[in-house]
Amino acid sequence: MPSNKSVSDAPITQFVNCRILRGSRLQREDLWVRSGSILDPEKLFFDEQGYADDRVDCEGSIMAPGFIDVQINGGYGVDFSEASEDVSAGVSLVSKKILQHGVTSFCPTLVTSPAAVYHKVLPQVKVHDGGAHGAGVLGLHLEGPFISAEKKGAHPERFLRTFQAGGIDDLMAAYGSLDNVAMVTLAPELAGSQSVVRELCRRGVTVSLGHSVANLSQAEEAVDQGASFITHLFNAMLPFHHRDPGIVGLLTSDRVPSGRTVFYGMIADGIHTNPAALRIAHRAHPEGLVLVTDAIMAMGLPPGRRTLGQQVIEIQGLHAYVAGTKTLSGSIATMDTCVRHFKHATGCSVEEALEAASLHPAQLLRLHHKGNLDYGSDADLVLLDDDLNLKATFISGEEVWKKAP
Amino acid sequence: MRLVILDDYDLASEWAAKYIRNRIIQFKPTAERCFTLGLPTGSTPYSCYQKLIEYYRSGDISFKYVKTFNMDEYVGLPRAHPESYHSYMWNNFFKHIDIDPANVHILDGNAEDLEAECQAYEDKIAEAGGIEMFVGGIGPDGHIAFNEPGSSLVSRTRVKTLAKDTIVANARFFGNDLSKVPSMALTVGVGTVMNAKEVVILITGAHKAFALYKAIEEGVNHMWTVSAFQQHPRTIFVCDEDATLELRVKTVKYFKGTSVLAVLLPGLSLSNCILCVCVCVLDISLQQLFQSTSHLIGVLMGTKRCVVWNLGKVGTGPTLDIKGVCMNKGWRCIMRPACVCIWQLIDCRSLLDVGYNKAKPCA
Questions:
Q1: Closest residue on chain A to B106 (Cα)
Q2: Where does residue A339 rank: exposed (0-12), middle (13-18), buried (19+ CB within 10 A)?
Q3: Does domain B2-258 have CATH number 3.40.50.1360?
Q4: Which pTM does this prediction carry?
């Protein structure tokens, strides 16, 4: 074909010989990309009389939207909750490293910390697009400090807070600013939380329920006010009880307003949740399942003792505990490992496993141009083999990581 | 006209696809001299398109210098609608091949001025030097493109209201809801298709049998518009057995007897010097034809009267471009093996005339 430049200056890339995840099915279709977005080739053909400038042979691989991790505390020695002078450097390091796990966008997560840490760290982390430099930052996930003391998990008790004045003042006092914040995890049984949930949702911040002893009606009340996520289901909440299912009951609650979905994070590392429990949740409410890593700074590092936020933790094999206890303090599994384990444990289809790591988190955060391969969406892609091992990662159509041969 | 009858839909599609492929290859299209191809839509040509895509993928043919003109398009249906003919052509053909989008022409059913669009289409055809080969199908009511019964046999590209039969036939693509089927379409005229140098009509299935009967065994009639091609100098009707169900046995026998099929078995190459020829001959034993024949290899596609020959080693002779072998009326003498010559066959009747007991050197 002669040069295409007369049709558009931006080069058009055609990914051939791949099976793309579209419409919840793997289809044998080519994927076309121009200027970082997925292109409709039929429109290109008839409207612009254009064709591809470059062809990339995917060798029969599966092509899925890039993974989105909405709960990741750090990795490779970087702890997002640590008030260092150069937080953005740490975020950049992690964002670059997680490309090899197929993560193209993420929410750097901060555990319960003193106000001083929030006031220092938050202004340094900005929402920005991904690229060759690393995965995109969708906004911060603030897990705490407005959580329950009884379900603090690995969070330091002395920095937990409750709502005093109610409303936005408490949030501002704790965090300093809500710019660049994508999600807040709180316990809905805390007095005064209703107005806080409402206010956060009004500002476009996703509200998640977690580290809580709320019963089902308290949880439903929060969902009514706009809460739409559950932080690491089963962990740090009351266990399911048949007369009061607690937060877990939201999966099948009939009080969720119609047209809305309650999403729930699952750490599918094989440790945080028994596979049987994972299957129960998946079967009860498959469309709401969001895979998260909840990875801590030790992810990617060799075993030993490390610091997470204000606490010391111990890594033993694939487990990470609060030092001296058997309380899990976060996982060190990578996102692609979670996807594979999830598929293996639940016996779900490849499409479902991939959607749990891409489409569902994008739907949770109301990002319509991410998490899918529809025309017009961002060309954040991963190439995988049939066993869901990563072969390459692309952001805006550009290859940003490739598996070494 | 020629009536080529194959056993079933797949074989008919394959025959047609090979014919189209070979004609394009023979034509040797270039940037200055494109091969203009008229194309149909619908369920009948689907398998033919699949085959052509296969031939493109295996490197047998390129569509780089092929210009296409589709027959028709619905009026008022959004171009991106899955049932529009633009969508059909993109999904079932264009997206799989190397055609230049600038060489593709399909009527725009959403044009502001439909009449101007039709006139412009005729002009584009004329500009391209006319259509070399128009491939088409036939409706159950005998229409070609959307030239419904009653259309003028000298008509040009224009807007047509669809007949009830056509709407009913197409309802299956619109969830069997008649109200969703477009009621008007832009279509090339009968005259437009008659202007093509060659016309290939694909007719398969028992539901088309009556239309085929009306088209070729009755007179030229505007109620069965495809009958107009009785007056075209070069028309081929490619059909399967089911489509011949309403024809007279005499007609079918006549056309089966005169068809000559040259098929080359895939996977065999010149290097091992086996050239397979498949010939359909009426009641003639080909054993008598060549004195130095080796053995029969098998029975091939077509009318079950075909045989395949192992013709022995190739001696010195001109090299052959197997892909260029013409499937049309016969095939040229292509090599002179030491012991056997391959005949130039016009049709089987000339085989009888020549006196097939002796091998003769080719002219």
A1: A46
A2: buried
A3: yes
A4: 0.81
